[in-house]
Design a protein that fits this description.
This protein is an alpha/beta fold. The chain is built from 15 helices and 19 strands. The strands form five sheets. Strands 6-2-1-10-17 form a five-stranded parallel β-sheet, covered by helices on one side. Strands 9-8-7-19 form a four-stranded antiparallel β-sheet, covered by helices on one side. The C terminus is likely disordered.
Length: about 475
């Protein structure tokens, strides 16, 4: 009997590979994933003048010290090993003329520690290597174009899934464990850097069985998505450009981040996203990367080709940018091993919340999270017995129908207005009532209700959760915890 992994991004693939030799059935809706689109790299303290402790400190500062210090320690101490493991799978990371890893700097990092593969194509290169390894292994079976829309329980144990195929046929599958690795919720917002499929489907599954949630209010907005009016999924303009010297400007050409934060353009994402969000309502925001010059195409091929395809030459003109929903720090509550509150149910990657990111994720810690905790979970699952867990009768708990296209569009606009980088209580309360009505029509409405309810409970400003109509001190862990 296999382990069932729901989701085919980096976290799901790593978990499946690390579970060898236990058989794994990996189920995915679409070959597209946010992991493949990742332009940032993987943060790792591999330089001689760097340390896991320094990386942990920057992670905690970005997360407003809402992080779980022990989990952050696991992440940052496991980073160098994660890079080495990927290299054994065939990932070729960018190196300098002396053969050393090229290390870039991104927002919130005290120094250069971002490893890239193929410049700004890191996500695609890592995904290619993981897919190749999954194909080579004899224990991973992958099914695509299937929708997992229910969980099977025996007593209080999750012991399988219910899926629907493209032709409408349904099937119930038993598993010794079920792992949710479906990614984030960006697709539920009107503007996102994620694919539309990143719509909270995994959260909805966990909510149907009343699994415990954590920190759902913390939604990260990337400050530099390419501004394309009318588009839902927006191309990302990597933060590494600012690490290479690009500057954010307002509609008058004035530096946007001057005197806003000591790190200016390389401030943590929540700070920069709020400023870009505000500028977007005052004429717009632009990223001026002209200083990178003729080397732009070689160093940032993905951004270069994307800009040129929309009539923008980033070597000659600033790039119009906007804030877009990018990453969910909250999710299904899990421990360091990916265990949820429901026996037999595990979660990993963006859909899970173990406290590593706190109230705002540090740049380039997302791919790292999927690798470190995916390997940890996969190795734990190796030892599970080949039995159906629980006792008593089996029952299926289904997620329910999806919203119509028109209703989903309405929900996206609603969440963008209510759960954006800057929030207002009156708007959230009104959105809560609208979401209750939408929840009766489709499961996406239920996910949105959970997000809004969590935001209304958080009465003070903290990280990515920011009230426009009240400045109240945040609460977080002591800096000493991350010393």
């Amino acid at each position: 009997m296999p382990i069932i992994v729901v989701g085919g991004g980096i976290a799901g693939l790593v978990t499946a590979i690390a579970a060898a030799p236990t058989p794994v059935l990996l189920l995915q809706r679409s070959p597209q994933s946010a992991s493949r689109l990742a332009q940032g790299g993987i943060a790792a303290a591999v330089a001689a003048n760097d340390s896991a402790q320094a990386h942990a400190h920057d992670t905690a500062v970005a997360g407003s010290f809402h992080n779980d210090a022990a989990i952050v320690d696991l992440l940052t101490r496991g980073a160098a090993s994660a890079i080495h493991w990927l290299e054994t799978l065939g990932v070729v990371f960018d190196r300098d003329a002396d053969g050393n890893l090229q290390l870039a700097r991104e927002g919130g990092h005290g120094q250069s520690r971002i490893v890239h593969a193929g410049g700004d194509a890191t996500g695609a290169r890592v995904m290619d290597a993981l897919l190749a390894e999954a194909r080579r292994s004899g224990h991973v079976t992958r099914w695509s174009s299937v929708e997992v829309d229910g969980l099977m329980l025996r007593g209080d144990h999750v012991c399988g899934v219910c899926l629907t195929r493209e032709d409408g046929s349904r099937e119930a599958l038993h598993g010794r464990a079920v792992v949710i690795a479906t990614g984030g919720i960006g697709g539920l917002f009107a503007q996102t850097s994620n694919p539309a499929e990143a719509d909270g489907s995994g959260l909805a599954l966990a909510l149907t069985v009343a699994a415990t949630m954590r920190d759902l209010e913390f939604v990260q907005f990337h400050p530099t998505a390419l501004a394309l009016p009318g588009r839902h999924s927006l191309p990302l303009v990597t933060e590494a450009l600012r690490g290479a010297g690009a500057r954010l400007l307002d509609s008058h050409g004035v530096p946007l981040m001057a005197r806003v934060h000591p790190m200016e353009d390389l401030a943590p994402r929540d700070v920069v996203a709020r400023r870009v969000w505000q500028a977007g309502r005052q004429g717009g925001a632009w990223l001026d990367a002209r200083g990178i010059g003729s080397d732009f195409q070689r160093r940032f091929p993905t951004v270069f080709e994307m800009c040129m395809s929309h009539g923008i030459d980033p070597r000659q003109q600033p790039i119009p940018v906007t804030a877009a929903a990018h990453f969910h720090m909250g999710g299904i509550a899990v421990d360091a091993d990916g265990c949820t509150s429901m026996p037999g149910l595990y979660a990993v990657g963006e859909v899970a919340c173990n406290g590593v990111h706190g109230a705002n994720r540090l740049a380039s810690n997302s791919l790292l999270e999927g690798i470190v905790f995916g390997r940890r979970l996969g190795m734990r699952l190796r030892s599970l017995p080949d039995i159906i867990p629980g006792s008593g009768n089996f029952r299926l708990v289904r997620r329910g129908p999806a919203l119509t296209t028109a209703r989903l569009t309405q929900l996206r606009e609603l969440l963008m207005a209510a759960m954006g980088p800057v929030r207002r209580r009156a708007v959230l309360r009104e959105a809560s009532q609208e979401c209750l009505a939408l929840a009766k029509e489709g499961w996406q409405g239920g996910v949105a209700c959970a997000l809004i309810e969590a935001a209304l409970r958080r009465t003070h400003n903290l990280g990515a959760h920011h009230w426009e109509d009240a400045e109240m001190p945040g609460q977080g862990a002591s800096l000493r915890q991350f010393a």
